[in-house]
Amino acid sequence: MLQQHTKFGAADKGGVEIIAFSELSQLATFNLSEDIKQKAEKFAVKNDGQYFYQLGDRMTVICKVKSDADPSRQAEQFRMAGSAILPAVKAFEEQSIFVRCADAAYGTALAEGFSLASYSFDIYKKVKSEYRPDYIGVDGAKSDALNVLRWMITGNFLARDLVNEPLIKLTATMFSERLVSIGKEVGFSVEVLNKTNIESLRMGGLLGVNKGSVDPPTFSILEYKPSKPRNTKPLILVGKGVMYDTGGLSLKPTAGSMDSMKSDMGGAAAVSGAITAIAGMKSDVWVMGLIPATDNRPGGNAITPGDILHMYDGTSVEVLNTDAEGRLILGDALAFAKKYNPDLVIDLATLTGAAVIAVGRQGICAMGKLDDKTYSGLEKAGHEMHERLVRLPLWPEYKAMLKSTVADMKNIGGREAGTITAGKFLEHFTDYPWVHLDIAAPTFLDSSDGYRPVGGTGAGVRLLTQFVVNHYAKS
Predict the structure, then answer these.
(1) Rounded CA gap, 162 and 164, in Å?
(2) Residue 161 has pLDDT above 80, yes or no
(3) What number of CA atoms fall less than 13 Å from residue 178's CA on the CB side?
(4) Which residue ranges does the chain devote to CATH 3.40.630.10?
(5) In terms of Cα–Cα distance, which of 139, 419, 215, 182 is closest to 289?
(6) How far, in Å, CA of 445 to CA of 448, rounded?
(7) 7-141 domain in CATH 3.40.220.10?
């Protein structure tokens, strides 16, 4: 079930008031007392931060936000300011927050950062540390924008919860069961294919990765279809659901390399969170999700380097590294997506460590075959949500790196261009507009970054939700 999260609405009296500005001239718009205004002006000359002022029974926070000429970067500054304010407000144990900015869009961004920063995963602790405001009002914000924000955060928190759950609490079967419950709660359908169904479909990639596990795989088909959808063909989101990754027989060798591998289903979590957000806000966009799920273990009849698997579409794949497993289960899902004649397919996966090396924790590696308008629209949503994309090429020469001497292709391309050759492998299973997002870098953090916490961050949910809002917007 979904956790109950903050409600958003119009600004009102009571609780904590947050007044935020990026330029001194904006102070005149807030009708402040001369005393507060003078103190704020004096503070703002030297500081980009926050200024606290206690007024009777109400706490007023006056916050000077760093100014930036780029609207997307300016919105991020307001989000970060919101996360910075949270500890002081939390100390006062206030549950109602009211945000005032000269621009309601930036006020909404501050509320977003404040709410995202309030997340905690402490369901297994005796002493709970959770603080989450009951209500956040944003002066001047439109109800539609606040509805999108509410569900975007709800979807993001769901993805964080899913990533943070350990395997013992979230096997592939448990994950699919949870999706069924959430679908009933929010309003989207979930069909779960069990191992027998998957065997009948001959999804050799998913079945192959699962051979080393005692827990069966699942393949979940999520669908949100409004009565009058704006798109005549579905937008399909595909998420890698490796619930835990040991590397299989190609066991991960380095110290600490398995510690965060419960996060290897971050793509599946992002798809689940995005569809929850899209359905919850009652969008008029038809969206589907395909989630192949299994853990990757070295037990039982685990596949070995040199084995050959036959994928859903009949492609034979020589497995030379069992730790390159995500692309195997995604290949089945991408080939399966063809039956729905999709408008667009976006897959998300914590696919390669090379993506972390390439862009660090601040970016998502993107590659695919899209028209430039759609690709640019996805990049725009990424900038707006500060989940930014870095385009990588899928030149024909990379296909040669996947050539096998005994099968149609092999599952790794060698040391060079590891993120790209993984994407090139996935491209083989597509014949429709498609983009691959490697979210390995931002999905799980060892240290907090503003409103992005230690552990699961929900990376991809806000990006996908904003893309749907923008790309399928009413003309």
Answers:
(1) 5
(2) yes
(3) 22
(4) 152-471
(5) 182
(6) 7
(7) yes
- What percentage of the chain carries pLDDT values higher than 90? 80
The token duo for 37 is 């205004």
Summary mean pLDDT of the chain: 93
Instruction: Give the model confidence (pLDDT) of 439-470 as tens digits.
Output: 999 999 999 999 999 999 999 999 999 999 99
Q: Regarding the domain with residue range 152-471, which homologous superfamily does it belong to in the CATH classification?
A: Zn peptidases (3.40.630.10)
For residue 230, what pLDDT is reported? 95
Q: Which residues of 423-460 are buried (b: 16+ CB within 10 A; e: fewer)?
A: bbbbbbbbebbbbbbbbbbbbbbeeeebbbbebbbbbb
Which strands, in side-by-side order, build the sheet including 308-310? Answer: 308-310, 316-318, 409-410
Structure tokens at 405: 């001497």
Question: Which of 30-34, 280-284, 304-308, 377-381 has the least mean pLDDT?
Answer: 30-34
First-to-final CA distance of the chain = 36
Least Cα distance to 8 among 118, 144, 106, 117 occurs for: 144
Q: How confident is the model at residue 29 (pLDDT cuts 50, 70, 90)?
A: confident
* Mean per-residue pLDDT, 212-222: 98
Catalytic center residues: 252, 327
Encoded tokens for 367: 């590659």
Run of H or E including 445: strand 444-445
Q: What is the pLDDT of residue 46?
A: 59
Contact 18, 85 (CB under 8 A): yes
Position with higher pLDDT, 4 vs 344: 344
Q: Using an 8 Å Cβ cutoff, are 95 and 135 in contact?
A: yes
H-type alpha helices, 281-388: 326-336, 353-359, 372-385
pLDDT cut 70: percent of the chain above it: 96
For residue 153, what are its two tokens?
């955060």
Spell out the residues 6+ positions from residue 358 whose beta carbon is closer than 8 angstroms to its own: 365, 390, 419
Q: Which two tokens stand for residue 124?
A: 């297994």
**CA torsion 78→83→87→91, rounded to 10°?**
70
Query: Angle 286-274-77 (CA atoms, 0-180°, nearest 5)?
Result: 125
Every domain range in the chain assigned CATH 3.40.220.10: 7-141
User: Taking the complete model, does pTM exceed 0.85, yes or no?
Assistant: yes
Q: Is the pLDDT of residue 474 over 70?
A: no
Q: Which helix (H) or strand (E) holds 77?
A: helix 71-91
